[in-house]
Structure to design on (620 residues):
């Protein structure tokens, strides 16, 4: 990626109300500050020198180098707005980012690529410029001692993570893990497919073997029946015997049926005779019975009426219920004669009932005497009929058994006759089926063998892939960084030679940590001046690595106060390092508190902050 910045426009961003900086220039430029705001109690600090390039980072990433997202001018009621135009390779970009309300606009080759809102546009921006993070900007474009993303500001293990991100080795690891994972999934899927195929093939093999075994059994049965004619003769003889038994049984059934019919007829005739005798006797005494019944009914009526008359007389009250004296004028009739009459009626009824019962007894005795012989005969007939029915049912059961057996024998005869007539045809058919299924079996076993070989091959590959995947999670990260770390170490030593006049700077990987040491002292144990020089050397070496390995370059380089705490000798050595090793960068901006730097520069940018807290920019 080759980025060529053109123009930066700022509105209401931090201390700036409005500013514009042309970045498409060539040479060395000094950025100085003049703080006239009495509230800041400073002359140069806080004037807004670094703010210009914080705006550049913010418009590209949504945050400053220091990680700040709240960037609006506190003295203005309008939100911040920054516009940046630049080229990357052959494409022209314009980005406009706003704050309060937040919004983002992206133009590529003057075509609006913005999304519906800021989130959509940020996603589109990442698709176009995936590498332009605040980390990369602070590693290649804006370098400074006081910036939080300074490489040496991280822990030894954090340095490794930063370097992996900058060199894209983490992306390479992710990409390799993604590809290896896909390969694992592919191989696992293929192994599952082979297992499924083998399961199907094993099932099919069992099925085909069963078919072959079935046809071989059928052939065995065909070969066993060489005495089919003898078997058929024996079957025919058995059929004849069973047929004779069946005829005997059926004859017996006919005889029993005839006997049963005759006995039933005689039984019915006796029953009719008994019924006729009873009817005649009933008719003989019918009139006498009716006469007696009529007299009983007439006596019942007389009894009822007489009793009613007596009850009515008894109901007459001739004595006062209160005083118990006879009531004058009321005479209660005498009921003696009525009671005698009532008793006479009741006696007559008893006499008639006795006559009726005697008549019924006479009828019963006469019926019994006249029908006894017929009744006894019917009892005998019923016993005979029941016995015949039982014999008849037994014979019918025997008949059914004989018929079923005869049918089975006839079916067996037909079977053997068919076998005898079609034996050669069946032998050929069964043999052909066996040969056909043996060919199918051979194909299935060949497939199983092939699949087993393929399974072993894929399993070996999957084992290897698992080892590779395991290595990616462990030592491979360090291996990928080896060339990059060796390169940074080499360049750092070259820069160390120019700054310290020795090569005692070591940049190396120890386990998961990146160690930085000078003269056998770890970076954390160095003096302030040594640390500052080592910081600059490491930052320049990483920038050099990114230019070489990722082909990343920028037309500007911002050096923010990298020499402010060095003595003159240290400043001279750093300026010499810059002049001799950063010739590939068209424009270098020095942000400094020093009034005069001991090297010629091509332009000056003065940042002035007035008493109201607003900064302005004048470029010379």
């Amino acid at each position: 990626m080759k980025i060529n910045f053109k123009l930066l426009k700022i509105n209401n961003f931090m201390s700036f109300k409005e500013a514009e900086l042309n970045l498409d220039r060539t040479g060395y430029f000094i950025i100085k500050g003049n703080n006239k705001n009495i509230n800041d109690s400073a002359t140069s600090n806080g004037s807004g020198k670094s703010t210009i390039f914080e705006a550049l980072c913010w418009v590209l990433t949504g945050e400053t180098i220091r990680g700040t997202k709240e960037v609006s001018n506190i003295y203005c009621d309008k939100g911040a707005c920054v516009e940046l135009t630049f080229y990357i390779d052959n494409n022209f970009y314009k980005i406009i980012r706003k704050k309060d309300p937040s919004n983002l606009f992206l133009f590529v080759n003057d075509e609006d690529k913005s999304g519906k809102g800021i989130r959509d546009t940020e996603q589109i921006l990442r698709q176009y410029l995936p590498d332009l993070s605040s980390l990369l900007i602070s590693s290649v474009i804006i370098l400074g001692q006081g910036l939080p993303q300074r490489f040496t500001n991280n822990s030894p293990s954090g340095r490794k993570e930063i370097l992996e991100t900058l060199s894209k080795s983490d992306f390479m690891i992710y990409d390799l893990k993604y590809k290896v994972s896909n390969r694992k999934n592919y191989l696992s899927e293929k192994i599952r497919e082979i297992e499924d195929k083998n399961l199907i093939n094993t099932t099919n093999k069992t099925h085909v073997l069963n078919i072959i075994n079935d046809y071989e059994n059928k052939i065995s049965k065909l070969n066993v029946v060489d005495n089919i004619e003898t078997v058929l003769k024996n079957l025919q003889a058995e059929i004849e015997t069973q047929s004779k038994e069946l005829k005997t049984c059926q004859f017996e059934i006919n005889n029993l049926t005839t006997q049963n019919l005759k006995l039933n007829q005689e039984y019915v005739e006796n029953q009719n005779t008994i019924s006729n005798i009873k009817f005649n006797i009933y008719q003989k005494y019918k009139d006498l019975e009716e006469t007696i019944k009529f007299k009983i009914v007439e006596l019942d009526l007389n009894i009822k009426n007489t009793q009613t008359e007596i009850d009515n007389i008894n109901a007459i009250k001739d004595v006062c219920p209160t005083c118990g004296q006879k009531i004058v004028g009321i005479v209660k009739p005498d009921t003696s004669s009525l009671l005698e009459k009532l008793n006479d009626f009741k006696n007559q009824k008893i006499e008639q009932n006795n006559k009726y019962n005697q008549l019924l007894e006479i009828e019963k005795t006469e019926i019994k005497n006249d029908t006894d012989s017929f009744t006894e005969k019917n009892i005998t007939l019923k016993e005979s009929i029941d016995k015949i029915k039982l014999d008849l049912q037994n014979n019918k059961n025997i008949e059914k058994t004989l018929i079923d057996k005869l049918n089975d024998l006839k079916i067996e005869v037909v079977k053997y006759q068919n076998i005898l007539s079609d034996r050669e045809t069946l032998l050929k058919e069964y043999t052909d089926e066996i040969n056909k299924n043996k060919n199918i079996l051979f194909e299935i076993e060949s497939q199983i063998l092939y699949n087993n070989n393929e399974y072993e091959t894929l399993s070996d590959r999957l084992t290897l892939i698992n080892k590779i995947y395991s290595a990616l999670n462990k030592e491979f990260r360090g291996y990928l960084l080896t060339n990059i770390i060796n390169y940074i170490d080499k360049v750092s030593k070259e820069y160390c030679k120019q700054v310290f006049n020795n090569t005692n700077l070591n940049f190396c990987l120890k386990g998961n940590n990146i160690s930085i040491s000078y003269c056998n002292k770890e970076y954390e144990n160095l003096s302030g001046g040594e640390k500052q020089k080592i910081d600059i050397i490491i930052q320049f070496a990483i920038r050099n690595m990114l230019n070489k390995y990722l082909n990343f370059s920028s037309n500007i380089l911002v050096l923010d106060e990298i020499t402010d705490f060095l003595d003159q000798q240290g400043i001279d050595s750093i300026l010499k390092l810059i002049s001799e090793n950063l010739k590939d960068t068209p424009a270098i901006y020095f942000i400094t508190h020093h009034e005069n730097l001991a090297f010629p520069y091509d332009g000056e940018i003065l940042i002035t902050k007035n008493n109201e807290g607003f900064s302005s920019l004048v470029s010379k």
